[in-house]
Amino acid sequence: MSPAITKSHDFYQSQANPSPGTAIEPPASAIAQGFAQGPNPNPLPKAFQPLTIRNYTIKNRIWVSPMCTYSSEDGYATDFHLAHYSQYAMHGAGLIMVEATGVLPEGRITPNCLGIWKDEHVENLSRVVNHAHKYGAVMGIQLGHSGRKGSTIPLHLYGTRDTLHASDSEGGWPNNVYGPSPITYDSQHYTPREMTIADIANVQQAFADAAVRADKAGFDVIELHGAHGYLIYEFLSPLSNHRTDNYGGSFDNRVRFLVEIIRKIRQVWPQEKPLFVRVSATDWVEGGWTVDDTVALAKIISAEGVDLIDCSTAGNDPRQKIPLAPGFQVPFATAVKEQVPEILTGAVGMITKPSQVSEITEEDKADVVFAAREFLRNPSFVLSTAHELGVYIKWANQYERGRVKTKYSFN
């Protein structure tokens, strides 16, 4: 078992009354905070039952979804990232997935996105990982490449100008945007050049090199970003992949790019560490990628060493018609879970209430829940869910006095 996930209740008892002015944090080997303990319901609600994947036991099934923050310069993690991800760790998240991180400079979505294309990025990422580990969080990183949707402006600048293009003068790379085919996403994005076989090999190797750096930084989990119309997904969908070589045309050819990346990563990523893939389970466009394709892909990548498929949707074609509603993407995770039991599933999409988390996990609609915007609104989403479900979990000592007292409180 990783040192980041060793349970230790004794530490919290011994540090109950620290000296005045002493900042108490659990050591890197402690993970008591966040595990359900004490006079709890038996059995525990599934949302708070630990989940073991390879050598890692994750203390609950409410996880932080990767969310771009556009707060980096030249790919480096900053103090913002340290504070941002630490808050989720200190408030009980079981697993925290760091935002889409470019495996190449042109693999970023914007000039302000995180990167992991050079060894110098490792040190700052390590600070983020090490601090989160002190509070018992398992740390993941989403490795990605933006493909034809790269060299754009950060989200907070949307609506302030007529185009999403990031120019050379703004740190963009308009002459180095590429994809499987020279098909523009829309008029707001640059037209990509079609990748050569050498380009494909270069990007695949960049993913493998990034995995080595992620390991050096101390990350426990890698998630490959194969969703939302970025490069991996552009190869998967027939709407964005019109190639006529071994990487286009048939289903087997279109999934080849991803499968080969997985194989390269599994050669360098420690066998005891989990590997996830996020996909868009449907394009929501006729003639595009479908849930049946997702199920077929899940069977293939499970056999290649992928432990969990994180089921999102859309983002690859502006013609998409998305039926937005709470939990609207959950059925796709359920379809995979029912038809491919050998792989774990993650549900995402407008999951904002403890009752939704309970329903998804108790009814086996997915193995875990990835929440996104709700964590931005409420970094204590795990703690508030535990309170609503009547589960006692240990809070960080520094915050314990703020607990709403219930019959499950120890004090």
TrEMBL record:
Gene3D superfamilies: Aldolase class I. Residues 11-20 have a biased composition (Polar residues). Residues 48-387 form the NADH:flavin oxidoreductase/NADH oxidase N-terminal domain. Its cofactor is FMN. The keyword Phosphoprotein does not apply. Residues 1-25 are annotated as: Disordered. GO terms for molecular function: FMN binding; NADP binding; NADPH dehydrogenase activity. It comes from Coemansia pectinata. Keywords: Flavoprotein, FMN, NADP, Oxidoreductase. The keyword Oxidoreductase applies. The lineage of its organism: Eukaryota, Fungi, Fungi incertae sedis, Zoopagomycota, Kickxellomycotina. Pfam families: Oxidored_FMN (PF00724). This is NADH:flavin oxidoreductase/NADH oxidase N-terminal domain-containing protein.
